[in-house]
Design brief:
468 residues; alpha/beta; Rossmann fold; four-stranded parallel β-sheet; two-stranded antiparallel ribbon; TIGR03013 family PEP-CTERM/XrtA system glycosyltransferase; transmembrane
Length: 468
Amino acid sequence: MKTNSNSRKSSLKLVVCDAAIVAYATYFSSLALGWLGLDLNTDATSMVITCVAFAVSVTTINLSVGLYESSLREPFRGIIRRIFVSAIISFFVVTIATNALYRPYEAHPLLAPLSVTLIIMTLVAFRYFVYNTESLSNKPNIVVLGTGVRASVIEKRMRRMVDRSNFNLVSFIPVSGDQRDEGIEKEKVANIELNEDFDKYLKDQEINEIIIANDQRRGTLPIDSLFNARLQGVQVTDLLDFMERETGQIAVDLMYPSWVIYSNGFQSQKIFRTVMDYWLNIFLAIFVLFFTWPIMLITALIIYVDDGYRTGASVLYKQQRVGKNGKLFNILKFRSMRPDAEKDGAKWASKNDNRVTSIGAFIRKYRVDELPQLINVLRGEMSFIGPRPERPEFVEQLVEELPYFNQRHNVKPGLAGWAQLNYPYGASVKDSLEKLKFDLYYVKHQSLLLDLLILIRTVEVILFGKGR
């Protein structure tokens, strides 16, 4: 799809530009030391190693904190904060790596601090320029066929300009059969006939893509015009595909069977992929356990001191959840609520839940309470990446109220997931619907590359404390 391709190209341009800026900033920092008479004759090999190390480190960490995500919804101060975090982490990474691996080529001790300072200043200036211009993107012009209920989804879910950063929405065009009373309210509507006037309109406005979003399909679309437009290179996209592409979710409430049948994705896993996923998850679980067991031990001791010794409650919380293909298993978590939290039965967890203990609020925020689930991964009950497993009591309710909810159980549940990154809090049926849109997107597009992206982006959640 053109818009998706443009988005990827813009992200790639940002990566290349950032890498070049970082390398030059490091190089000019070395020159500055020389001008100040502080350079201790740093050799060329050391200079190249330091420049490359900073460029690779900063761009990789920028990716982990979401700076190359086209769907990033942040004010500019949020971008500055991410750049600052990325540069500071890179300082420690490069310093440790160069000292440990390249001792013969040790750089001047002031080079790294000066480079980081200059990197932050130049990247902020560059991102300010990009943030306020469209210099790195060539946005396609799109027009929406439809002004009714289905078309209004774009107006309601993509209200802000940042939500439309990948395209220019020229107008909505009425189609017979649209439910106008519940449709478009504030968007620009072009009242033109769907005949030669429509063909001329597409040429005059230099339209690159047409979104099909009318309420009634049969006998209402200008088939000849769409056919000619397609032959001339104009992309014709269904509303569901458009929303999936631009928002990273599937509009469950708009889905219809034929779309599922004919759309790409929802592919069954091959045996090789299944085996590779299993051993990759085992390796990652052991790797993470190796580094986090001290944190887990300290957390267990704090929970015990906080109220465990007094109430006799376990520091671990075991709860039944629904796994792949509906199979039940017991999930393990550090206990973050009072022992009597569910004396009246199962309840949705809510924001600022008064059942959460003082230490529980902290470990939830930074996802420390999830660490015991590494045991579930080692048992093969969960993966690192996948939809969050729900409780059987809630699944019964959600299956009845939400269409396609059971389809999220086609893959193993995970510690981290696409829904958690994009809709991190859910405490009702309505929230579950929103998360389901992202879960089904993951089920449809699951791949090692997407898993890697989610794994890297999860670092952002931990760094900025965006957990519950």
